[in-house]
Task: inverse folding
């Protein structure tokens, strides 16, 4: 079974984290949620997630993908040196790194979006040296980006398709009556 690590910091965008978790789980992926603070983590609208995995115990070698939700908590993700190193290890190792809304800027600031098709929260695009698509989701190699909270389902399906293939994603879309 393929495994996905979803990183949370206080201020995370709830729909981007929980919606992505739900779609990936429906597709049959194992999704483990980690708290950068190693404790309960509260989203921007007050939803508190408990009993999360401790980031201090994170072992990236057992995961196929790393997911970074947006929201104001993206700054905590961006300023964590260990997470920055893990992003580098995942990208260098050909593993999937997926970021949505504000979090693609983390990848942009590290230079990972150069020459890539990408999207992010439109007002946060700083011309990262690639092509800003403005689409809900953009996949280029092993980097997947999403535009905003409204893009969560398309973003999650892009991750699932990269890890499991189009046929599996089409099955999940059918099961939830996704008609886009």
Result:
């Amino acid at each position: 079974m393929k495994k996905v690590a979803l990183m949370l910091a206080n201020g995370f965008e709830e729909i981007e984290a929980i919606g992505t978790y739900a779609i990936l789980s429906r597709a049959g992926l194992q999704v483990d949620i980690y708290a950068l603070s190693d404790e309960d983590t509260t989203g921007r609208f007050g939803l508190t997630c408990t009993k999360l995995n401790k980031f201090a115990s994170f072992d990236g070698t057992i995961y196929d993908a790393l997911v970074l939700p947006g929201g104001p908590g993206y700054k905590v993700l961006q300023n964590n040196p260990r997470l920055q190193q893990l992003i580098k290890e995942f990208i260098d190792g050909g593993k999937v790194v997926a970021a949505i809304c504000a979090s693609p800027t983390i990848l942009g600031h590290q230079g990972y979006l150069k020459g890539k098709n990408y999207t992010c929260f439109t007002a946060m695009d700083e011309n990262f040296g690639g092509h800003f698509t403005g689409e809900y989701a953009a996949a280029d190699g092993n980097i997947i980006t999403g535009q905003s909270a409204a893009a969560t389902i398309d973003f999650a399906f892009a991750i699932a398709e990269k890890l499991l293939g189009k046929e599996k994603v089409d099955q999940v879309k059918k099961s939830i009556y996704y008609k886009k």
Q: What stands out?
A: Residues 14-26 form the longest helix (13 residues). The mean pLDDT is 97.
